[in-house]
Description:
Mean pLDDT: 86
Number of helices: 5
Strand content: 25-35%
Largest sheet: 6 strands, mixed
Order of helices and strands: HHEEEEEHEEEEHEEH
Helix content: 10-25%
Oligomer: single chain
Distance between the termini: 36 Å
Number of strands: 11
Low-confidence stretches: 1-28
Amino acid sequence: xxxxxxxxxxxxxxxxxxxxxxxGSGGGMASSDISVKALRTRLExxxxxxxDPTSDFDANPEVTAPDLPLREAGVLAAFHxxxxxxxLTKRAATMRHHPGQIALPGGKVDPGDAxxxxxxxxxxxxxxxxxxxxxxxxxxxxxxxxVTQFRITPVVGIIRGPFxxxxxxGEVAEVFTLPFDHIANPGNYxxxxxxxxxxxxxxxxxxxxxxxxxxxxARILLGLAQRLSV
Length: 230
């Protein structure tokens, strides 16, 4: 049986989660004051900082991850050179997996993809119309395992030049950005919890304004924020 979360976890019940999603951390999508040189340097150092793989199970150590095959996937954390803003998507409500959730552009590795980086770039092109030629790939973060049996490789890159995203109809409801300062601050990520499949589960959240960043995406970005803070 799963224990209730420790005292430092916000015990947010499902009925309260919608309100929490709107609360955010205040303010609009303000830009950050960071140069492209400083952005690249910080991201390169973060990539080079040793770190272990992460998992949706990290916040629930009493839960044993099932011994099942994992499907490979890649997601893209693309920061713009102008101010470090990060591009994210809100998944369409009609999607089979994680409808309506905030996500990094990306998806599973298809047979035609050379690797997880290729999958992340292909999916970003499909989902938000980002030309791979416009992206400077900095590197990858350790893989993240999800409760849905994906092993996600986060790819970190910098978008060079003007970019106007276009949401893919049917898959992406909205493309938006969050400021680098919010993403890069580990203090913005907290633990909350809810009942999932009959058991209490804790997970990371980092809400900002109307955007409720949580789950695997929040855990992946927390790992990056922790390495940016070293």
